[in-house]
Amino acid sequence: MEMGERQAIYQVSTLQALARGNYYGSTDMETLLTHGDTGLGTFHAVGGELIVIDGHAYRVLGDGSAVEAATSDTTPFATVTWLREQVPVILKRQPSIEALKDILTEQVRELGINDVYIVRIDGHFRSVSARTELEQQEPYLPFAKVLEKDERRFTFEDIDGSLIGIYIPDYLSGVNTSGWHSHFISADRKKGGHVFDLDLEEGRVIFNKADRFILDMPHNKQFERGDL
Description:
alpha+beta; seven-stranded mixed β-sheet; 14 strands; globular
């Protein structure tokens, strides 16, 4: 990145609001995609994981299948940026999500631990373990309770695809998930989910650093008057 050239992360709402059950979509996909072409999040009523890649938004359904979202679909929580092409780093095999995080965090330490980072990893995966959630009905339960009853997990084997990962520094914990948070989508854009483990055979990494954070707070009573 050139000196003086700044990159912004755009976010809808906060992790605290989502964790406490504010699942009311406040920004539609058409608007979200004016703020970035790469990112992740969820949908109204936490009706599936959201992956934004190449300027398209995808929803992961309960069986792990992915479909392109409608422009009118809304999100209660999402984070996107414009991915800038950098000289790619080629990764050798990373047998677990923790091994991959360790490699990526080394780069974060070199570049500065208090900025936000977004990575895109295109590669071949021996396996990807992922999850999504089923759409909720009001009254909304806290997100931890949703995961207890309506999380759906699946594993993809021997698959080409892309990982979108975001790194949030510790001091923003609560605004977003501190550390690394990653979503996967297959190369054919037909499978995906929130990643909790993987085995990466090899991959090509684009690593972006952002030093601007734009937070778009939702206009609903649950956010405006909620205990965050």
